[in-house]
Amino acid sequence: MPRGEKSKYTDKQERKADQIAESYEQKGVPENEAERRAWATVNKDDGGGKKAGSGRGKTTGHPAAHRGGRKGGAASAARPASARSASARKGAATRKKNAKGSGS
């Protein structure tokens, strides 16, 4: 398969790459760079194209999709307990306020 050929990717992988590229473009990344990053992410998640042979249907674990949780968790843990508690109170108040307004 020549480099850049996408015939071995499933429809789901192509949709995933399109959504990732669109997200990068909204952040101001040039179109060709956004597409390159998107396919790199799909390859990292799924190990390349899935349309051939006996390996089809294996689960992948989505490693790229898990990175944000670790980063966010470390940042949250570094904040003082009082700041986390204040954020929790503020969020609870917002959810309570919004719940009242959406009764219809």
Structure description:
The chain is mainly alpha-helical and 104 residues long. The chain has a domain at 9-46. α1 crosses α2. Helix content is 62%, strand content 0%.
The secondary structure category is: mainly alpha
Oligomeric form: single chain
Radius of gyration equals: 20 Å
Shape: elongated
Biggest sheet record: none
End-to-end gap: 56 Å
Number of helices: 4
Strands, total number: 0
- Ranges where pLDDT stays below 50 over 5 or more residues in a row are none
| Beta-strand content estimate | under 5%
Helical content band = 55-70%
Offer a few descriptive terms:
mainly alpha; 104 residues; elongated; 62% helix
Briefly say what this structure is.
This protein has 104 residues and is an all-alpha fold. It has four helices and no strands.
SSE map:
Elements: H1 11-26, H2 31-46, H3 67-78, H4 81-101
Helix pairs in contact: 1-2
